[in-house]
Amino acid sequence: MDAVIIAAGYGSRLRDLSDSKPLTPVAGVPLIELGVRQAHAAGAARVTVVTGHEAARVEAFLADLSRRSGIEVLTERVADWSRPNGFSVMAGAARVARAGGRDFLLMMADHLFAAEILHRLVRVGAPDRGVTLAIDHRTDSPLVDPDDATWVRLGAAGRIAAIGKTIAPYDAVDCGAFLATPELPEAIAEAIAAGAAGSLSDGMQRLADRGRAATLDLGTAWWIDVDDPRAHALAEAQAPTALAPLYG
């Protein structure tokens, strides 16, 4: 199993804490290290990190992390990190393919997950889906930022009917973890060719329109999007317990 972690963006809302979002520490451990370690713990033998903003620093850190941990970490740098995140997904998927892989666990660098979420997600692949997204029905959770969340509306059999930051009504929130097949980067490329900006959600919506976007309800499991100082403070307080094995 491969994993791809998207770590190319700037992270302006955390700039007062760190000038590199992936290197922002949470209880002493950088976000990107936690991401790599949780992907590996879920079964990813190889982790590809897509870099962009402060790429050289992030890549140097990852090279050292690979030496320290023994985890195979590859990097793929995008030239223009300001473009929508779908471009990073396509770049990461291409790196996986060049390394001989196919399906991959897709994660955002600023999201942290209880181990059970990723362990469940990597086991739900099936021929009837092009992607499976972890979702949370607790849309009013204090851990969810309603101003930044990506919302999901469900259709038949728990499949995604609509996804985006401005949809209404909605049933759940996108948790930032996916089990992806090559259909996902292909759908993003199709969306761009049709005039879309190129976000991950653009590709997800195309798969949803085909009935190929499934979901995994994470129930009451812990996760958090560390996207602003408030969320960072919550993560600092909760992550050492929720992710105890990663803190050793």
Automatic annotation (TrEMBL):
<keyword id="KW-0808">Transferase</keyword>
<keyword id="KW-0548">Nucleotidyltransferase</keyword>
<feature type="domain" description="MobA-like NTP transferase">
    <location>
        <begin position="3"/>
        <end position="142"/>
    </location>
</feature>
<protein>
    <submittedName>
        <fullName>NTP transferase domain-containing protein</fullName>
    </submittedName>
</protein>
<dbReference type="InterPro" id="IPR025877">
    <property type="entry name" value="MobA-like_NTP_Trfase"/>
</dbReference>
<keyword id="KW-0460">Magnesium</keyword>
<dbReference type="InterPro" id="IPR029044">
    <property type="entry name" value="Nucleotide-diphossugar_trans"/>
</dbReference>
<dbReference type="Pfam" id="PF12804">
    <property type="entry name" value="NTP_transf_3"/>
</dbReference>
<dbReference type="InterPro" id="IPR050065">
    <property type="entry name" value="GlmU-like"/>
</dbReference>
<dbReference type="GO" id="GO:0016779">
    <property type="term" value="F:nucleotidyltransferase activity"/>
</dbReference>
